[in-house]
Specification:
Elements lengths: L2 E3 L7 E3 L3 E2 L12 H14 L3 E3 L8 H11 L8 E6 L1 E3 L6 E4 L5 H13 L4 E6 L8 H13 L3 E7 L3 H10 L4 E5 L11 H9 L2 E5 L34 H18 L3 H10 L5 E3 L6 H8 L8 H10 L12 H4 L5
Protein name: Aldo/keto reductase
InterPro entries: Aldo-Keto_reductase, NAD(P)_OxRdtase_dom_sf, NADP_OxRdtase_dom
GO molecular function, one term: oxidoreductase activity
């Protein structure tokens, strides 16, 4: 597996394609722990070193799952482990109801994640979202204290504005900004945010790089989603939007067919072609998809192929917002 660097040439080396672990515990239908462990084992075999989780995924359950798998590994140093804090759940409903990036909460959240993961340090620690009522200088100042204490090695932010990134980076270097980025979701990144990241030497970690699985081309209809699949609540998978979006997937598939690769591999290769400072973290809970996604690191597209894939999903052609309204309101602060 080829490597890329977090935060520029001197930063931590990570696999060019990472692995999002959320779906191993929550969000995309029933969990299958045995298959998820096989997926993690397959990732290790293929040199996928960059694993992504968060304390919000299953209210800590995903961190515990990844941590249990890590304890069976011989070398902690073989994994670059990223996790996040800041989203808190309502105990009654189990749903995220608060964003907490207060400086007093930062060390509490970190210590809890370290316990669940069973590790002495976190390689990359993100603020999952930002509470605009809390100055980002205070949040990052508290995160910087974790670096000084040896509990965290690198700092990250997720779904922030360019202005917030600049302010935070002036307090302590930010190695990565995690943001949704794919053929389906480009406008939030391409423009001022990407330009700011490049000016400051910050890596873009692209989550949902396959449009929450839609760009993989396996989904034929909304009816295939189980009742407990979160995508049923997301606008792009709604009854009124999904067929229009699947038409775009079919356009991507036509280009991929000409390349003689699966559409997921083509979509991930397109992201990798946007720059060495882009690291996609496709999520899956199945070993065979880990292998398919990892293979994108070995697919080099020509400029013409990159342009054709972009043209397959014209700007503003995707139907529906990327999140429900309540979640959208937490983005871009």
């Amino acid at each position: 597996m080829r490597c890329r660097r977090l935060g520029g040439p001197g930063g931590a080396a990570v696999s060019a394609v990472g692995l999002g672990c959320m779906g191993m515990s929550v969000a995309y239908g029933p969990a299958d722990p045995a298959e998820a462990r096989r997926a993690l084992d397959r990732a290790a075999e293929l040199g996928v070193t960059f694993l992504d989780t968060a304390d919000a995924y299953g209210r800590g359950a995903n961190e515990e799952f990844v941590g249990d798998w890590l304890r069976g590994r011989s070398a902690r140093e073989d994994v670059v482990l990223a996790t996040k804090f800041g989203l808190r759940h309502d105990p009654a409903t189990g749903r995220v109801d608060t964003v907490d990036t207060s400086p007093g909460y930062v060390p509490v959240a970190c210590d809890a994640s370290l316990r669940r993961l069973g590790v002495e340090y976190i390689d990359l620690y993100y603020a999952h979202r930002r509470d605009p009522a809390v100055p980002v200088e205070e949040t990052v100042g508290a995160m910087a204290e974790l670096v000084a204490a040896g509990k965290v090695r690198h700092l990250g932010l997720s779904e922030v504005s360019p202005r917030t990134l600049r302010t935070a980076h002036a307090v302590h270097p930010v190695s990565a900004v995690q943001v949704e980025y794919s053929l389906f979701t480009r406008g939030v990144v391409e423009g001022e945010l990407l330009a700011t990241c490049r000016e400051l030497g910050v890596t873009v970690v692209a989550y949902s790089p396959l449009g929450r699985g839609m760009l993989a081309g396996a989904l034929a209809s909304r009816e295939e989603l189980s009742e407990d699949d979160n995508r049923r609540r997301w606008p792009r998978f709604s009854a009124e939007n999904i067929e229009r979006n699947l038409q775009l997937v079919r356009a991507v598939r036509r280009v991929a067919d000409e390349l003689e690769v699966p559409p997921a591999r083509a979509a991930l290769a397109w992201l990798l072609a946007q720059g060495e400072d882009i690291v996609p973290i496709p999520g899956t809970k199945r070993a065979r998809y880990v292998a398919e996604n990892a293979a994108a690191a070995d697919l080099t597209l020509t400029a013409e192929q990159v342009a054709r894939l972009r043209a397959a999903v014209p700007a503003d052609a995707v139907a529906g917002a990327r999140y429900p309204q309540q979640a959208l309101e937490r983005l871009g602060h």
